[in-house]
Each structure stands twice: as C-alpha cells, then as structure tokens.
Amino acid sequence: MRAVLRVVNRVLLGLAGLVLVALGGSVLAIGLGAPAPSWWLHDGKDDVLLSEAERTRWREEGWWWPVVVAVLAALLLLALWWLVAVLRRRRLAHVLVDTGDGEEAVVHGRALEHALTEDAAHLSGVEQAQVHLTGRRQAPAVRVRMSLAPHIDPGTALDDLTHRTLAHARDSAGLAGLPAEVRLRGVRHRAERVS
Amino acid sequence: MSEYTGTVLDKTPPPPAPAGPGRKQRRRFWSARRVPAALLALVTLVIAGAFLYDIAAVRADRPAMKWRRELARQLARRPLDDIWVLVGAGVAAALGLWLLLLALTPGLRPLLTMRRTHPDVRAGLHRDAAALVLRDRAMEVAGVQSVRVRVRRRRADVRAVSHFRELDEVHDDLDAVLTDAVRGLGLARPPALSVRVRRSGRKG
C-alpha cells in the first residue's frame, strides 16, 4: 500500500468522523436539553431537524440547484475515485534494470516476484513465502510475507532474508536499494516434548 | 497438594540499538485502513448517487421519488427530543467517534515491530508467531509438562505446569531460556517476561 493512500484514507475517515460527531453530538445534546448557541443549526429541543423553510430557503435563487448538483457530483466523483484507489491492487509489471553499459533492460515483475518467492521459501526455517513488488519501475520495493517453521528464531530468519534473498535480488537486478516490508507469521503446530 | 506459584516480572530488557535513528527504528506499523475506507467510500457513493439521480429527475420535470419526499417530511416533523431522532443522533455520534479512532490509531496491534538489521528492511513479527517460538523453547526445559504463552504488546505471559523437579529450579531455567528466546525474536521493543510455574495437579 502506498503511503499516500494510507494518509488519504486516514484523513478522509477522520473528516467523516468529525462531521458525524459534530452533528450527532449536537443534536443529542440539544435534544436532551442543553442550551443551543444562537448561531447553531438548531435552537432548542422543540426545533426540528430540517424544517420546510430551511430546506427551501434558497430554492428560488438561480444558483441553488446548480450548486447542489455540482456538490453532489463532486462528492460522487471523489467517492468513486477513492473506492477505486482503495480496491485496486497495484503491482509492478516491469522493473528497469541498469545493465552497466548504458543500456537498460526490462525485467518482468512477475518473474522477479517468482524468483524472490522461491528464494525466500527455500531459506531454512521458512515454510511459506509470498513476495509482491510495489513501488516504481526505477525504484521497486517489495512486500514479503513469510510463515516460519517451528524452532527457528525469527531474528535469524529475518537476517537470512535480508542478507541472502534481498541482497541477492538487489545485486542481480543492479538496484541501488530495495526497500522491503516484511511480515512474519508462525505456523500453528502442536507442542512437542523434547526430553 | 503442593500448589506453588512464583512470579518474576523481569525488568524490561535494555533497549536495543541505543545509537542510530532510535525512535524511527521502533515505529509501529500503521494500517492502511482499507476496509473502513472502502466501506465509507461505498456509502458516500450510494448516497450521493441516489440524491444526484433524484434531483436530476426532478429537474427534468419528473416527480421526486417517494423516499426523498418521506425523508423531507420526517425531517420537518420530528422535534429534536423525539426518541428516534435521539437514537439516530447517538448512533451517528458513536460512529463518528469510531471513525476518528480508526483514523488516529495505528492499528495492526498483533504486529510487533522488529529491530532493524538493514536500513532498507522494515519487519514485523506477528505476536502469535512470537508466542509459538516462546512456547517451543519453554517446552525444552526439563520438568515442564505444558506451557501456555500469551504475548501482548508490552508483556509476555508464560504459564508453565511442571511435573517433576523443584519448582524454583524449573522457574530459573525457564527464565534463562526464555530471556534468551525473547532476544532471539529480534524485536525492537522486547516484551517484558512474566513467568509462572505451577505443580501439575494430576501427579501425586
């Protein structure tokens, strides 16, 4: 997940939360008898949520309907864009490799993912591995998910991954750096008596 | 029955990697909040779409849909101290608080940040995996019949049942082995260890 989308998600969720808290909280407070400030939407507990007069206040104005439609359309487009951005899984199709003689070669993302996955799965103590390429073509990054077998120190497994699999991939693809996000899980197994 | 319980709350192990970028290394994983974001986007999409469609239809001289007329009628009729209005407002406020909480907290609580061994590699260990490792190591101690391990963000609780040897000895061994095992987890913020040993009830 790109960091930008994470921030966008959180900002929009926070905004929606603020709006809901403000509206719901104020209606709740005023409805239960708290005094309402004069400039607020509702002026007492006998007021209604949205009166006929409030709803149709600007209806005769020429700008009212275009503005309503424009705001709704903007909201619709924003929601659509957001939904697509959240649901889309971005994966890198190609990686640019510097061959050293001024030429550039293109490596298929799938091939690199496959090689990395195979490599990681064969590390000692790793039961399963999954590698996804993210980032940009010139600066790829990887996300790694690994399941650890019993009796392997997670610290050791991470060291192996860092210094063998990832270092190997970085060197063979001629990349300056290969940022990685690694998540380790365990494989459920029964407790065994050793002695 | 010789029921004996010993507890040692270890001092938190010394913070690892004191030099270097310190805090940055120990940062937690922050969830992208994909699911709530997708749900909120979907709800907004549906609501905005419905209103837009109906308003456009009315502009084109068709009658407004029933739900919108009914909504306007209800909004204009119910006072703020109406029970349904209060319930609705309470639900909205609670939902809003929940969304704020989602926006401001990191999430991914089960994922424990690991110590950085390479500047490019950020790693997290699932706490179930950490618990499995500690359990396996604890089972290797002589005299331990069964172990239950729970790893939380700050503390690892180990409850062992012993069927032979002195409880004190088993406890000391467990402590030594587990301290080593916790170090082997390679966590940025190793959990404090709490070990308890109990005599097996079944054996006389």
Distance between the termini of chain A: 46 Å
Mean pLDDT of chain B: 83
Radius of gyration of chain A: 28 Å
Main pleated-sheet profile of chain A = 3 strands, mixed
Number of helices of chain A: 5
Please outline the major beta sheet of chain B.
Answer: 4 strands, mixed
Quaternary arrangement of the chains shown?
heterodimer
Overall tally of structural domains of chain A: 2
**CATH topology heading of the largest domain in chain A:** Alpha-Beta Plaits
- DSSP strand count of chain B: 6
CATH architecture group name of the largest domain in chain A: 2-Layer Sandwich
Helix content of chain B: 40-55%
Task: Describe it.
The complex is a heterodimer of chains A (195) and B (204). Chain A has 195 residues and is of the alpha+beta class. Chain A has two domains: 1-49, no CATH class; 94-186, Alpha-Beta Plaits, CATH 3.30.70.1350. Helices cover 46% and strands 18% of the residues of chain A. In chain A, the strands form two sheets. In chain A, strands 3-4-5 form a three-stranded mixed beta sheet. In chain A, strands 1-2 form a two-stranded antiparallel ribbon. In chain A, β1 and β2 form a beta hairpin. The mean pLDDT of chain A is 85. With 204 residues, chain B is α+β, with helices and mostly antiparallel strands. Helices cover 45% and strands 18% of the residues of chain B. Chain B is built from five helices and six strands; from the N terminus they run βαααββαββαβ. Chain B has helices spanning 34-59, 66-77, 83-104, 127-139, 167-184, and strands spanning 6-9, 111-113, 121-126, 144-151, 155-162, 192-199. In chain B, a hairpin with a 7-residue loop joins β2 (111-113) and β3 (121-126). Residues 1-21 of chain B have low confidence and may be disordered.
What secondary-structure arrangement, pairings included, does this model have?
The complex is a heterodimer of chains A (195) and B (204).
Chain A: H1 3-31, H2 52-55, H3 64-87, E1 94-98, E2 104-108, H4 109-121, E3 126-135, E4 140-148, H5 154-172, E5 180-186
Parallel strand pairs in A: 4-5
Antiparallel strand pairs in A: 1-2, 3-4
Helix pairs in contact in A: 4-5
Chain B: E1 6-9, H1 34-59, H2 66-77, H3 83-104, E2 111-113, E3 121-126, H4 127-139, E4 144-151, E5 155-162, H5 167-184, E6 192-199
Parallel strand pairs in B: 5-6
Antiparallel strand pairs in B: 1-6, 2-3, 4-5
Organism (chain A): Streptomyces composti
Transmembrane segments (chain A): 63-84
Protein name (chain A): Alkaline shock response membrane anchor protein AmaP
